[in-house]
Each structure stands twice: as C-alpha cells, then as structure tokens.
Amino acid sequence: MAYLKLHSLLQTVLCLSWEEVCFLLGKLGAPLWPELVMEETNSSRLETFSQLVPIMRTLLDQHADPIALQNHLPNLPITNGSTTFAEDLKVYCNALEWQSFYQQKVQPTMEQYELDTFGRSHDIMSNFWNSCFDDLMSTAFKRDKDRSDSKSKFQEVIVDPYMKRVRSENNRYVIWQKQNSNQLGVVWQHWRALRRLFTCERGAWANRVQPEVKWKLSGAETYSKMRLKLVPNYNYDSHSEASALRDNMGAESPRSSEPLPLAVAKEAKVSDMVDDHLEDEDLVFLDNKGEGEDESQKEKLVLSEDCELITIVAVVPGRLEVTTHHLYFYDGSSEKEETEDGIGFDFKRPLSQLREVHLRRYNLRRSALELFFIDQAHYFINFRKKVRNKVYSRILGLRPPNLFYFGSRSPQELLKASGLTQKWVYREISNFEYLMQLNTIAGRTYNDLSQYPVFPWVLCDYTSPVLDLEDPSVFRDLSKPIGVVNPRHAQNVKEKYESFEDPTGTIDKFHYGTHYSNAAGVMHYMIRMEPFTTLHIQLQSGRFDVADRQFHSVSAAWQTRMESPADVKELIPEFFYFPEFLQNMNGFDLGRLQISQDLVTDVVLPRWATSREDFIRKHRKALESEHVSSHLHEWIDLIFGCKQRGEEAVKALNVFYYCTYEGAVDLDAIANENERKALEGIISNFGQTPCQLLKEPHPPRMTAQNASRRQARLDTVPANIFEHLGKLRPFMEVVSDGLPLIQALVPKNQNHSIMHGSDTLVTVSSSGLIGTHSWLPYDKNITNYFTFTKDPTMTNLKTQRFLAGPFSPGVELGAQLLVVSNDGRLLFSGGHWDCSLRVTQLGKGKLVGRMCRHIDVVTCLALDLCGIYLISGSRDTSCIVWQVLQQGGFSSGLSPRPVQILCGHDQEVTCVAISTELDMAVSGSKDGTVIVHTVRRGQFLRTLRPPGDINLCSPISALQVGMEGHIVVQKSQEECSHRKGKHSIHVYSVNGCLLSSFTMEEQITALHLVSEYVILGTMQGSLHIRDLISLDSLITPLALRVSVRSVSITKEFSHILVGLDDGKLIVVGAGKPEEVRSGQFSRRLWGSTRRISQVSAGETEYNPAEKAGK
C-alpha cells in the first residue's frame, strides 16, 4: 500500500532534485542492490522488487537527469514504453555498472543528503518552532493592538462623543434648571412687587391693616452729592440671631486688621509710584473725530467687555456694551436681587445724558471707571487691568454732548482745570460742596466702602447746653491730624514713628496703624441704617459688635478720639445732612452698655441739639462757619494736599501704614491667586488714602468781608437777592396790559450764540398770548439791575403767538398748566378740551406735539430740575411721567410712550412735582393727600397728610420739591358763610417728616421753592419770603397791591419775577441803583436791532401806592 502511495506522489510531484532521487534510490530501492540485502529470502525480494518496478520507472523516467543517467549508466534498460523493463532491470541490477553507480554516486549522495537534511533537524525544528512562536506572538500582539486600536477608535468615535453629549446635556439641564429657578425667582419678585402695588395703602386692593414699613438708604443722590432718601426695605431682617451672638465682653480696643504676610507684602510693594494716565494707544480714540454719530442714525455696537458693577452691597459680574447711542450693563449674576431700579442691576443709559467719566481704582488697582449722568445716577464699574483705559477712551471718543470733558488728565490736573479751588477761596461755593468735590476728584465714592468720602471733625464741644459758633474754643484744631488733636498724644506718636524699624525693609515707618477712613469706620457710624447694618454683621462674623464699641453717643465718640491715639476715625458726609442715620428706626437690638446698662438705641446727641434735625443743621452751620472757613485749608493739606506724603507728612505726624497709599502696592505682582485675594481683603480693611491733589500748600479762604469787596470791585455778576433781603426793590414792566400774566420765567439752560449775550424771558398771559422777551440780568452801566426788551410780536396782531385752544370748560389757565423746557424752546400745556398734553414751539408758536393718554382733562404739569422728565396730573386721578426727547442737544418733544403711569388718588390731581435725581414723583389732590412714588419703577413710597380739620374739605392746591428733597405743600380750606378760608404751608423732609407749618388768611396764589427759601404770592397782592425749614418770615412782605398770579426766580438768583393779575411783570432786585448817565446807554445791545425805546433798564420802580393816589 505504501509503495502505491509513493508511486502516486512521484507521479504528481513536479520534479525532484538529483540529491532527492539518489536518496530515494538508496532507501527505497534496497532490493536493487543485492549485496545490501543478502539476508532477505528470494521470495520476499522478488515480491519487493516487483512493487519497486513502477516506482523505479517513474523515478528514472520523470525525475532523474537523463544526461547524468547516460553518463553514469550507459547500459540502463530503456524505461519508457519497454514491456521487458522489469526483467531487464532485474538482470541489470547484478551488473558491475549498476553496483559501481551505487557505490560512487547513490550512496555518497544519499549519506550527504541525510546529513544535510536530518542531521540539523533539531536546529531546523527549533528555528521552525521559534519562527512559529514569533509569528504567533506577532499575530497575538497585532491582534491585541488591533483590538486596542478598535477599542480606542470606539472610545473616540462612539463613547467619548456620547459621554461628552451626556455631560453637555446634563450641564444644559442643570443650567436650564438654574435658569428656570432664577426665572421663577425673578417672576416671583415681580409678582411680589405687583402685589405690593395693588395691596399698598393707596392700591386698588389695599389691605385694611398695612404692615409696618422698614426702611433702608437709597442710592439716589442730590446734585450736592447727598444720599438723603430712604426707601422701603422689603427684605427686612431684624438680625435677632446676630444680637444673640453678640460678645458682651466690654469695650476693648477695636479689633486690629489681620497682619500682612511679610513675604507676600514684599512681593507686592512698589518702589516707584506712577500717576494714573492713558497709554498712547488709548489716546488714538480720543483724537478720532468721526466716531461720534448723530442720534438719528442707526445704533451701532462700539465695544463690549466683561466687567463688575461695584455697589455697597455686592460686586455684580456682568457685561458692559457701548454703542453709538447708549451704555448697557447686563447683570450676569445667577440670582438677581430686587433693586431700586428693578429686578437685577441691568441698566440702559443714553450717552447724551452722560455728564462725567472718572478714572478710578478698586482694591488698589487702577482698573475702574465711575460714570455720572445728568440726573445724578452714577455707576462704579471695574474691568480687567488693561481694559479700563480702552473703555474710557472709546466712550470719550464718541463725544457725548453733555460730557464735562477733561480728557486723560490726572486728579491733580483735574482739580486745577476745574477752578474749584478758586471758587472756594472766593466763597462762590460752600465748604460742604468743596469738600465733596475734592472727595470725588480724589477717587472717593459712596459705592466703595474702602474709599468712602471723608469729612473732618469740626467741633470739640459736645457737652455745653448752647453752641456758640463765635467762640473759637468750640472748634477742633484743623491743622493737626485727628490722632494728635489731643496734644498729650503727639509725643507718643512721634516716638513710635522714630523707634519703628522693619528689618526686612518692606514696611515703612508710620505714625498710625489704623486709618481715618475705612469700611469698618463707615459701618461704625452707619450701623443703624441698612444696608450698613447687614455689612457690619458680615464684617463681625455674623454678630453685632460689643455695645460699648458701637457708635452710641456723639460726645462719647469724640471723647474716644481724645483718649486713644489708635482711634483716628474722621467723619463721614452724613454728619452734615442726614439726620436719619442717628435714629434706630428699624428697631435693631444693639445691646446694652456694660457699666450703665443703658440700652443702645438712637445716638445720644450733644446737649446743644434739641433734635436730630437740629444737630445736623447746627453741625452743618459749624462747617460753614467763619472759623472753619479760615482753617479748612489746613485740614485739606493733611488729607488731600502737601502734608499727605513725604517730609511734610512726617513733620505733621500724618504718616499712615504704607499700603494705604495710592500706587504703593501692585497686587498683580503676586502670582498666587489665593494669596492675592487674601491680601486684597486685608489691605481693604486698612482703608485707602485719597489721591494727592496738591503738592503745595492750599490757599486760605477769603473772609466774607473781603469776598464781598472783591465782588463789588469786579462788578461782573448781579447780587444774590437772598444775601441782600433788606434791600429788595420792585420794578415794573408792562407785558400784557389788562390780561393776567400767568407765567413769567427765564429758562435756566439756554444756549447763547456769540452775538446774542442776553437770555430769553418767557411770558404767557391768561388769553394764551406767548411772549419771548430779551433779558439781561446785569449790566455794569446799570448797577445791580436788569435790561428787559419786550417782545415786539406781542403788540402786532399779525405776529402774535397764542397757545392752541380751546381749553376745557371750567379750567382756568394758570401757571400749573404751563411748563417751559429748560432750553426755552418748547412750551408744554395742559387743560385742553380733548384731555391732551400739548407741545408748542416757542419761537414760532407752532404746535409740534399732542399726547392723549389721560382719560380726563390734564390739570397740572411739572418739569424736573435737569429737564429730562415731565409729569402730568389729571382729573382722572392719575399722573403720567413723560420723557423729554433731545435732538442735537435741544428739546424736541415728548416720547409717545409714558415712562410711568401713577395711580392712588381718590379725587382729581391738582398739583405735581418731580425730582429725577432723588427718584421721586410727588402729587397732590383734592382729597387732601400727597402721594410720593418712585420715578424709575413707579412704586408707592408714602402718603403725606398735612395737618388740618378732618371734617373740612382741604384740597392740596400747590406743592414743590427742593434740591434736598424737601416737599413744600400748600393746603387750602375753602371760605364758608360762617368762617374765613385758611391757607397753610407745610414743609416735609425728603423722608416724610413734618418739619414745620404755618397758616395765613391771605389766599396763596403762587408758590416757588428755591434753595433754602419759600417765596409766596397772594391774591391780596403780597410777596412773602420765608425760611424753608422754619417757615419764619425773612422780610416784611412786599405790598404789590395786585393779585399775584406767578412767581419765579432767575437762574443767577438775582431777581424774582412776579406776574400780576393786571398783566404787569414785577422784577424784584436787590441793591441801590446808580445814576444812569445819558451817554452810558446810547450803545446797542448785543446782537439787538430793536430801537432803544423798546428797552427798559430797571428804571421804573413799582410803587402801587403812588399809582393809586394818581
């Protein structure tokens, strides 16, 4: 069987080598070699031979080399096709040739083949298995690699995107949940505000029992930078837990600030201080004349930057966007709080209302801006380090029309350019105004507690029953820092400075380790007033400070300054204008004094003060006194001037810890963020010294006598009539003879051309006749008096201008229905039959606007001080606040969409007033009440009910709002058969406190409030001037003998304009007129081509008694 398989293989294999043929011949063909198989029997040999014949035939015929066979076996039988091959081969095998072939060729070749093939089989097999193993491992590695690659690819293509999408969706879901929660919170806050509006005292669904209102300080400021107004605190907290946690361990020394880590302080210290200025690349935008665009053009985005809005209560992350028309801030905080302006701190302000932009520092970095607008709104915004200057330059590059522009000047240059120092020296501004302006220029702001405005202690007598401001001994020595006002402390402070030495050289010598103005000091004084109460508790780790360390008495606070050189706190501005901060009106538990066990509630006042208002009034009077005026420059040198730093500061014992000074520390030099933030907090608690404004001694103030002499010598401006109330004299001008003169005023913000130096005086008569007269309040040729040129169009029937009528039946056209825009271009009028509010262009008498939003006749109008908002009242019991549109810097009309619609009165609204800077809209009604709303949100604040007989109908007939928020209300009781009518005037503070009242039998027909004075005109023809606070009469009433229809004051406070019922204009001035030489008045008025016969020069003195006699 094996032979058959071998034969079959040999037939199928292609070709064997000669060595393989020899090997097969030697091994398989053994029977062919007789001498090798002698032991085999003949029978087995024959059988084997017969089986080998086919193999031999195939091997020799197909695989052996024919040439080699021919050479070695020439006699080999023919293998191919021979029938006798088997017999022939059998015979040939015994031949010598065959035997020799075996021995010489087959056997050696077979042995060599065996040696070559099987002798190294172990190595070959080893190599073979190694090769197999290597291939196996390579295959396994490749398989693992492919599997890993496939897994990585799967991870990359499938798993990672999936997980990323999962995380993204989870984050999106979380953000959505947060946004949804925040949105629900905002909606809930809006709903709360809406519910308050409906359920408040004057709301549609007013609760029968109103909850007790708690108050907090508003951010609204007056033009004198006073924060006077309180607003309801809807998130009131009694802080009972903070009271319970109070540590009543006695009056220890104030907690000192945490010490600065020395290594960190050394890293942050700056050796050379550089003034704050703009870089060259920022100045490029200031020189770009074409960037500002007209308001009529499309609004374009100029700049958008991430920033922080800094407020007293929070640092609000957000984004500021500057466009060609507006400034936008978007509140980016996750949880928006309810503010005075709405929900959150978002705002949108027109660039046209931007008044000032100041470079500021925040946390000792020069990275912030403070923006001031013409309605006294202001925003303190912090940017990244190098962004601030770019934003500043781009805003100024837009050329806002009302911007008080000082370019890139430093605070020192800013003060010099402002001329404020000269104005103060010449007594043109008050001490309070000057100090507030110095604080503002030096970077002090109400928005940052560590840079709060600083004011001096001016008195040292808080124990006498009477305060004598003529006695110099009652005043503090303003030439010395508060720490050494007590002379006993001076030597100790000096020795401390001289003995101090820092071995590392990081900390410079200093006299005081605390500061005269820091966040803790501000909260110390303002602890009774939110939000300062909450901030104080946060500073004290969730508790109130010890009662003995709190501000509980004015005299005790001064005594502390005298006893401890470590307590060097100066005062804050509120001591001179804000009586409410002395009252614990919210009822906080401030504890008891340790020794006396007296409860700490309201601040204990000095004996010479009868009330909080009296203390503030006398304290302010002390600040403005002659003694303080003559020494205030010495204190300015210490705080803002030449004695703030350097050798002069050392001599004056006025050196504070080095890191309180501007530019002494560079926080960005600290690489570790945690260390930097910790250092920011520590330095912030030390307080910050204002920017140095002066490097030479501040000039002293002129005495009042010398200032008056100078003014008289210069003879350039008219006298202030309120400084010469004993010299008032009336002069007469006939404007509309026989027709009542219901309005006469000089708009205060008129734009003058070079050719026309005079103002416009606007008059309106009861017939609607409009007059625009030329008015020059002062002329050297006519000392202390005026120049009046009557409008010639009033006497020409073809050119006369009238208000468009008709007016509603029963409406008497009066001053309360007429308002003139601040620039004198527009006249707003009410009382029309169609319930409209109309806008008339004064120059042409042309109707340019008509607003119909009230559903009954408009009964009264009023314009705010800055001319931005107009308020209208109506018989429909509502009031509407309108925005006055500006175009090219001029008033152009009213916005058709009301700013606010205010409700709450039960009867017709009779009078209105508005103060945009204090965010107050005030309205009086026939129901005898006065309601105060906010302008920005339209929220109800309070109801004022002037005292009077509740059984009698006493409508509110007039009201005015003063610069400091005083509300003057006129209340009238109508005359009946059994009694005379009574007319009363009531004065309220901005926060609704009744200050004074008086009643008179003369019917008041005109009311005007200016500065600290109330001017009244009566139907009986008297003109009264009274003190605003006390309502005491300051002059003997001027007897004009004809019913007064209107009263106004000129913008220079030089003249009172009185419109009479007989059409005459009475001009009240001060001083004695000089003789007018004939040659002095022969010149032409500036830009005037009118004849001299039309001009009045204040020569016709009004004497109604003489006229009656004639």
Automatic annotation (TrEMBL):
CDD domains: Beach (cd06071), PH_BEACH (cd01201). Residues 296-396 form the BEACH-type PH domain. SUPFAM superfamilies: BEACH domain, PH domain-like, WD40 repeat-like. Residues 1-15 form the signal peptide. InterPro entries: BEACH_dom (IPR000409), BEACH_dom_sf (IPR036372), BEACH_Domain (IPR050865), NBCH_WD40 (IPR046851), PH-BEACH_dom (IPR023362), PH-like_dom_sf (IPR011993), WD40/YVTN_repeat-like_dom_sf (IPR015943), WD40_repeat_dom_sf (IPR036322). It holds the Pfam family NBCH_WD40. Gene3D superfamilies: BEACH domain (1.10.1540.10), Pleckstrin-homology domain (PH domain)/Phosphotyrosine-binding domain (PTB) (2.30.29.30), YVTN repeat-like/Quinoprotein amine dehydrogenase (2.130.10.10). Keywords: Repeat, Signal, WD repeat. Residues 409-701 form the BEACH domain. SMART domains: Beach, WD40. It comes from the Eukaryota. This is Neurobeachin-like protein 2.
